[in-house]
């Protein structure tokens, strides 16, 4: 009885642990891609310069994932991505600030990215599109006023240039 209980327990535990392995490797089974944390790339790290204040770093990197209570001068950026069917990718960047002149400035960084000495060139996604000139004989307002006989062509030629005929006869 004891031997059969042990073998049943062993068989049940092996079956339960292999379920996830079998289900993950079945063809046609969809698994979700899980992204967590701050997305950090090399272009963001290249924009960081020594002695930047916290506001400038916050503009470039975004808010940190973790703010450690014991290390208030360190910001932690952690990124975790598990594409469906692939190995998980985890990237970490830690920014260290030092207080100088009453302001906390960027003193250094360490983690999975290294800053580059090359100048930062951000690719632009903007496009310039030339639109053809629209040829319109008359505007909508000119068409409406033309229906009532007010087409704007009845100006007085004796009025001085720049003044309408109604204001030309006023003493001032």
**How far do the termini sit from each other?**
121 Å
The helix-and-strand class reads: alpha+beta
The run of helices and strands is HEHHEEEEH
The whole-angstrom Rg is: 36 Å
Share of helical residues: 25-40%
Shape: flat
Determine the number of helices (DSSP H or I, runs of at least 4 residues).
4
Portion of residues in beta strands equals 15-25%
Low-confidence regions = 162-168
What does this 3D model show about the protein?
The protein is α+β, with helices and mostly antiparallel strands and about 170 residues long. The chain has a domain of about 80 residues. About 25% of the residues lie in helices and about 20% in strands. The chain has 4 helices and 5 strands; from the N terminus they run αβααββββα.
């Amino acid at each position: 009885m004891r031997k059969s209980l042990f073998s049943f327990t062993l068989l049940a535990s092996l079956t339960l642990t292999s379920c996830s392995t079998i289900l993950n490797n079945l063809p046609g089974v969809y698994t979700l891609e899980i992204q967590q944390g701050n997305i950090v790339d090399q272009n963001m790290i290249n924009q960081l310069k020594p002695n930047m204040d916290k506001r400038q770093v916050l503009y470039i990197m975004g808010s940190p994932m973790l703010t450690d209570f014991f290390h208030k001068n360190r910001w932690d950026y952690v990124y975790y991505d598990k594409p469906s069917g692939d190995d998980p990718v985890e990237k970490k960047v830690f920014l260290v600030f030092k207080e100088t002149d009453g302001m906390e400035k960027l003193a250094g960084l360490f983690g999975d990215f290294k800053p580059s000495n090359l100048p930062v060139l951000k690719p632009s996604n903007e496009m310039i599109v030339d639109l053809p000139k629209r040829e319109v004989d008359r505007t909508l307002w000119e068409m409406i006023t033309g229906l009532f006989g007010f087409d704007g062509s009845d100006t007085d030629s004796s009025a001085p240039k720049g003044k309408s005929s109604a204001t030309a006869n006023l003493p001032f």
